[in-house]
Design a protein that fits this description.
Two copies of one chain form a homodimer. The first copy, chain A, has helices at residues 5-8, 19-27, 46-54, 69-80, 96-108, 124-130, 152-156, 181-193, 252-264, 270-279, 285-306, 331-340, 376-395, and strands at 31-34, 91-95, 114-119, 135-140, 163-169, 197-201, 227-232, 244-248, 321-325, 347-350, 352-353, 367-371. The first copy, chain A, is an alpha/beta fold. Chain A has two domains: 5-43 and 285-395, Alpha-Beta Complex (Aspartate Aminotransferase, domain 1), CATH 3.90.1150; 60-279, Type I PLP-dependent aspartate aminotransferase-like (Major domain) (Aspartate Aminotransferase, domain 2), CATH 3.40.640.10.
């Protein structure tokens, strides 16, 4: 039996490939500090669980294909709060940001279509795009320049007849880079000029640490036809397991296509929608508290990194990730060695090696992504382990 | 901006296209009896809601990509009960049978690949296959022969170099046709001989009314490499809103591809998985009671249909659907007329017109699908309305 050549071109998750070695380390009694996955440790607001417990219909029925009105309206109200007006026709509730991305790619890509994405990027983009017949045209950035990517000339060089969209994560995963208003405007102008979709994966919107107001490409009214927003409750409300996301677009033709995919998969889980609508009622200081906590962690992480000679890292301004170049030959080999050969008083550390975040072969070899989703004391210990690990790794008998 | 040509080749749901007219009828004070959608009215077992209420972790985190062990094991135990042995590697928990279908198509289809499916078929198959670059090669059946499709010569005529799979829903949606053991064997032999995947969408497995034991292509051990089972808790436990499904395959190469798609979309909703695992503990007489209820409805539906002169319908043996040819010129026009021009004492009825279930143009024009998901008294009234409607429609001034 044959396998799809498109499936063959997809990869297993680079974040999960060291999992079996971590399991082995734990079996040997080693404690592993996890900086490798973006699963926040912040408590999910109790509004979620209260709503779930109060659900009292006898039949757990299909929800409307595009989402339950309570949740759609909660999303619309949220955007009103950042100055963007949407109607229910513009908002599609999806099974996580993941399904939102898959539906968008199914709707806009043909065999051979291209999407321009700054690299390093969230590796699952590759699967959503490949399975829709498209490919990623990477816009390469570097640790030395803080992974900045909004450069007109560099982007325009990548545009050709097959280009359908420019996509970015803002604030960035894996880099933590945050677009300035001017950079966002520049991307919008390029999309408009070249008649491309501009896809903003904005699931980390709340996680900005410079005191700026919340940004969205939805605020740029003149590109309403081009703009596609990917959003989710996963990170915003520490509710990753709800699998509730959103695609938002004012483009009527695109709405028609997305509706087809929404109808084909019938609906999104009913209880999770009811409970996610309640999340949007979480009290106003929830975000402030969460932002304060992550900012502290970002600072810890960054300051500890700066103490390690040879590390290259620009201070990330958002999300809860940080990308850095380490003074090691190969981050993959280093990670493996940390799990199999290293421990300090019985402890070791895991991060995500950088290569899996790049489309260009050979890039990111000495880079790593750190997800700072641990409590302060654990984070400090994890960063100390990274420092000790680098020292020991570079001194080891080869 | 361009739209995907594959998306353009997908359709909106034929089940939902009359929805606005039904809304209008209700606004005019007409009561609409719904035989058009497969949303069961049976109560979801309380085990589901109990499990949800008892969930007590503070963070609603991502679940493992392939599913939580409790649910995977519940699925394995269920299959053990029908004589099929699976390991955790064989079972992938998905967001409904819908995601299961999409992942399978992404894994096996290339541009131009073909899947042989008996028509009439579940219309959403078209979207999952088209968006993966494939097309449906329909195996046409007829109301006169009870929509039977397991014929070696007819199937082999449709096989060519692009054929990747034979897929069927058993028990059938929309027809209610159930494969005999011999017919299932015949399909397995064809798949084996021609090196094709055999995809059994078996979500209606429990809904058989001839006293037979539960069937699955998983029971045919010699085609373990070819067999792909699509399953779901939606119909089995009247839990459509849980969006919990499964792909099951022993084919290692396919498992590798499906794992990629599971990882890319991160996980299935955590609470729904926990609660669906509990569903499999629903007490043993649950299925007997549900089966008895649906059998009664099937009989009501069929007997009432047989009282209408000119109807062609073979008694369906399973699922909760029935397909029939009516003595009308056009089921679409008839449905529209029922909603806009007809009522009997303020009541009218909705079904799903047949054309949307066929890939071959012009087929199914005078056929309808009935979902018998109403309580006995409502079902009787709905079927009487259908009879009265046909009489009045054929006597109307044109």
């Amino acid at each position: 039996m044959k396998i799809s050549s498109k499936a063959n071109a997809c990869n297993l998750s680079p974040m999960r490939k060291f999992h079996p070695y971590a399991v082995d380390a734990v079996k040997r009694g080693v404690k592993v500090y996890h900086l490798n996955i973006g699963q926040p440790d912040i408590a999910t607001p109790k509004e979620y669980f209260d709503a779930v417990r109060n659900f009292s219909l006898p039949v757990l029925a299909y929800a409307p294909s595009n989402g339950i009105p309570e949740l759609t309206n909660a999303v619309i109200d949220y955007y009103k709060g950042i100055g963007v007006n949407y109607t229910p026709n513009d908002v599609f509730i999806t099974t996580g940001g993941s399904e939102a991305l898959q539906m968008v790619m199914h709707s806009i890509l043909d065999e051979g279509s291209e999407v321009i994405i700054p690299e390093p990027f969230y590796p699952n983009y590759n699967t959503f795009i490949r399975s829709s017949g498209g490919i990623i045209r990477p816009l390469t950035t570097t640790p030395e320049s803080g992974y900045k990517y909004a450069f007109k000339d560099k982007i325009e060089k990548l545009i050709n007849a097959n280009t359908r969209a420019i996509m970015f994560t803002n604030p960035g995963n894996p880099t933590g880079a945050v677009l300035t208003r001017e950079e966002m405007r520049l991307l919008a102008d390029i999309a408009k000029e070249h008649d491309l979709y501009l896809i903003g994966d904005e699931v980390y919107r709340e996680f900005v640490y410079g005191g700026e107001s919340l940004a969205s490409i939805g605020q740029l009214e003149d590109i309403a036809e081009n703009a596609i927003i990917i959003d989710s409750v996963s990170k915003r409300f520490s509710a990753c397991g709800a699998r509730i996301g959103t695609v938002i677009t004012k483009n009527k033709e695109l709405q028609k296509q997305i509706t087809k995919f929404c109808q084909a998969r019938l609906s999104v889980a009913t209880l999770d929608q009811v409970a996610s609508a309640a999340l949007y009622n979480a009290k106003g200081d929830y975000f402030d508290a969460v932002r304060k906590e992550y900012k502290l962690r970002r600072d810890t992480c960054y300051n500890k990194l700066m103490e390690i000679p040879g590390v290259i890292c620009a201070k990330p301004e958002g999300a809860f990730y940080l990308m850095a170049a380490l003074p090691v030959d190969d981050a993959d080999k280093f990670q493996m060695w940390l799990l199999t050969d290293f421990n300090d008083h019985g402890d070791t550390v895991m991060f995500a090696p950088g290569e899996g975040f790049y489309a260009t072969a050979g890039k990111g070899k000495n880079e790593i992504r750190i997800a700072y989703v641990l409590k302060q004391a654990d984070l400090e210990r994890a960063m100390d382990l990274l420092k000790l690990g680098i020292e020991a790794y570079n001194k080891r008998a080869k």
